[in-house]
């Protein structure tokens, strides 16, 4: 991985896509998706983030067109939104901060970004460009939650589902069931524990449901654990059902839904656990992710002030990251400049020592003097190059390339850099130079 490319991103989320489009965009495995993206021509790095509300991919490629073509094979839905280099970075920061979530400020997304990052590292898909971007996103997410009240109140899809059941149906004197004992199911169970009379935990692996049941200790709630076999019969005695499994198929067939009694159902999965046919059954009240907007909108209003502060954090860290990329590009030129100067110094010292009779101590003094001269001569241009990079002064960077000619054997900047006028250089190429760096946060 060279670290000399642009980030191009693709996002399918609840903001632009229907539930059906989100389901169609779902990938079975983040690791497999990374492997497929890295196999695309010209892709150097890749990062895939998938949650119940979004499927996103980011690649680093030599230019935007190459990245776009790679992402087109990953997402074919028309709901996919493509993002250029800076859009991708800002969007990723906003996602980790919780600003793009269905429930603004929800905490789960930060852990999901971190998990996706670890997967990408395990698959050797993360390189210097995306590493800087994702680690910056994680920092933004942590700052958002420690420095603001963005995660006060309803902070997850699971808690939003319980809040909806409480406000619309009521929890007192009810029997509730949570189908699925994963992360979201566990959160839903914790919120229901102590608020309902009886809680049924249904999971494909009964042992996992039993572990969750042992964790729930609120007084007054009777906890029952069961598998998914005969689920319709189990749910027949339940007033409220919150379903959150990882199944790719419905956990209840339409015919089973017809046999249920009056039931309030919240399906917080993608793909759905409950078939769409249940929406039309009079004895069922079914809410899916799209309908949870009624609860999450109230949360957005409550967190408006905190969100404004988080936007400031995003802007601040976004600017820092761009500056970091720019300084690294300057450091690349500076490093080449010093290597060129060191080569000239070494050649001249070798010639001088060959033609004189200095002993080792005298040679050491002369070498130290030569080092000091090189460092003093290059100190001013070093600072100027770093300042020029931060100010987007590409003519100064180009002049340095011409003056010091830092092309080294087997290295140095690519030939097209020497041949192009930076004043007239397309913005996309400038951005490529900005991101052609080694990570050194």
Automatic annotation (TrEMBL):
Query: Domain comment?
Result: Possesses an unusual extended V-shaped dimeric structure with each monomer consisting of three distinct domains arranged along a curved 'spinal' alpha-helix. The N-terminal catalytic domain specifically recognizes the glutamate moiety of the substrate. The second domain is the NADPH-binding domain, and the third C-terminal domain is responsible for dimerization.
Identify the residues that the record assigns to the Tetrapyrrole biosynthesis glutamyl-tRNA reductase dimerisation domain, covering every copy: 310-405
Marked site (Important for activity) residue numbers? 91
GO terms assigned for molecular function: glutamyl-tRNA reductase activity
Q: What is this protein's function per UniProt?
A: Catalyzes the NADPH-dependent reduction of glutamyl-tRNA(Glu) to glutamate 1-semialdehyde (GSA).
Report the active site residues: 52
- Give the top-rank taxon of the lineage listed in the UniProt record for this protein: Archaea
Could you say which EC number(s) this protein's record lists?
1.2.1.70
Residues binding substrate are 51-54, 101, 106-108, 112
- Its annotated pathway? Porphyrin-containing compound metabolism; protoporphyrin-IX biosynthesis; 5-aminolevulinate from L-glutamyl-tRNA(Glu): step 1/2
Q: Provide the catalytic activity annotation.
A: (S)-4-amino-5-oxopentanoate + tRNA(Glu) + NADP(+) = L-glutamyl-tRNA(Glu) + NADPH + H(+)
- Glutamyl-tRNA reductase N-terminal domain span: 11-148
* Protein's recorded name: Glutamyl-tRNA reductase
Alphabetically sorted, this entry's keywords are:
NADP, Oxidoreductase, Porphyrin biosynthesis
From the UniProt record, give one GO term of the biological process aspect: protoporphyrinogen IX biosynthetic process
- Look up the further comments and give them: During catalysis, the active site Cys acts as a nucleophile attacking the alpha-carbonyl group of tRNA-bound glutamate with the formation of a thioester intermediate between enzyme and glutamate, and the concomitant release of tRNA(Glu). The thioester intermediate is finally reduced by direct hydride transfer from NADPH, to form the product GSA.
Quinate/shikimate 5-dehydrogenase/glutamyl-tRNA reductase domain: which residues? 164-295
Tell me how this protein assembles.
Answer: Homodimer.
Traced from the root, the source organism's taxonomic lineage reads:
Archaea, Methanobacteriati, Methanobacteriota, Stenosarchaea group, Halobacteria
